[in-house]
User: What shape does this take?
Amino acid sequence: MAKKKKAPSSNTIALNKKAKHDYFIEEKFEAGMELQGWEVKSCREGKAQLTDSYVLFKDGQAWLLGARIQPLPSASTHFVTEPDRTRRLLLNKREIAKLVAAVNQKGYACVCTAIYWKQHLIKCEIALAKGKAGHDKRETERERDWNRQKQRLMRSDHR
Assistant: This one.
C-alpha cells in the first residue's frame, strides 16, 4: 500500500513583509515564474527570500530582480547555480501593458509581495504599489497596535 504524503501546512513559500510597510498596495496580480529545476526543489524546502525584490519591465516582458533562491547543498555540480539571477515572470500582454503604464506614472512601483504554490505550479504575487512617506509608516504602525489592543480587550471581556 502506498504511503500518503503529508499536506504542507501552508502554500506560501515566501512573503515580502517589507513591501507592505514601505508601500500602499493598490492592485495585485498573479504571475507565473520561469524557474530551473534546482530552484523548484529549493522552493519546496522554503529557501526563497523576497526582501528588496522588485519587478522590471523590458522589451514587453516582466522580470523579477532581487529575489534570492538559495541552492540546496545536494544540488548537482553539472551546472552553475545563481541564487540572485533575474527570473522571467509570465503575464498576459494586457496585464504587462497595464503595469507598464502605471509604473511610468510618478510614485508607482511594481513589487513582488509573495511566492506561493498553486496546485503544482509556483506563482508570484506582484503588486502595483505607491511609496509611503515616513509619517504614513508611523500611522500604519499606530493603527496596527491599536487593532491589537482592541483584540486583547475583546478577548479579556469575553472570559
In short: Residues 12 and 116 are 4 Å apart (CA to CA). The chain has one domain: 12-132.
